[in-house]
Write a structure and sequence with these properties.
This protein has helices at residues 2-28, 30-67, 81-88, 92-105, 111-123, 127-140, 144-158. By secondary structure, the protein is mostly helical. It has two domains: 2-72; 81-158, Alpha Horseshoe (Serine Threonine Protein Phosphatase 5, Tetratricopeptide repeat). The chain is rod-shaped, with a radius of gyration of 32 Å. The model has no long low-confidence stretch (mean pLDDT 86).
Length: 164
């Protein structure tokens, strides 16, 4: 904080010195005021040096955000390979259990709930259990945007209108 304050004061001093030297050089005219005009440009170089580090930091942070994501990937990601492997092996109770564990560990994820609903609907042909999964998911999913996405996808799976 102190470094930034010193830089801002330095830039303010440079700006006022640049204005004063430039005005003085213009008053004296080109042959006599040339030294003042050159000094004013030198002050601009000093101001640029003072601004270089904070601007480089801001631009660098912005560009690094393009290549190194921050918060979203800072935590462990859900492992869908276990329940998907159980689905491929036609171990549907095991897949339901694995999806339930994923849903409990990652409340921001909507896919485990949808896959459980899909198993109940397409494999077991039990829409009541799928509706129970939907109702429980609406209580546990975190985030308003995730809830809206889940409502729309669940309504599509159940063959209902999204407003229901």
């Amino acid at each position: 904080m102190a470094g930034m304050t010193i830089r801002l004061v330095g830039i303010a001093v440079c700006a006022s010195a640049w204005w004063w030297l430039g005005a003085r050089g213009q008053e004296e005219g080109i042959p006599g005021g040339m030294l003042s005009i050159l000094a004013a440009h030198g002050v601009l170089v000093v101001a640029a040096i003072l601004l270089a580090k904070p601007l480089a930091g801001l631009i660098g942070d912005w560009f690094s955000g393009l290549f190194v994501p921050r918060e979203r990937f800072a935590k462990p990601q859900p492992m869908y390979s276990i329940p998907e492997g159980r689905m491929a092996a036609e171990d549907y109770p095991g897949a339901l259990e694995a999806y339930a564990e994923l849903a409990a560990q990652h409340p921001e994820e909507i896919a485990p709930h949808l896959r459980m609903m899909e198993i109940w609907l397409r494999i077991y042909r039990d829409p009541d259990s799928a509706c129970t999964i939907r109702d429980n998911a609406l209580l546990s999913i975190k985030g308003r945007a995730n809830l809206e996405k889940f409502r729309t996808a669940a309504a599509h799976l159940l063959g209902e209108s999204p407003s229901a």
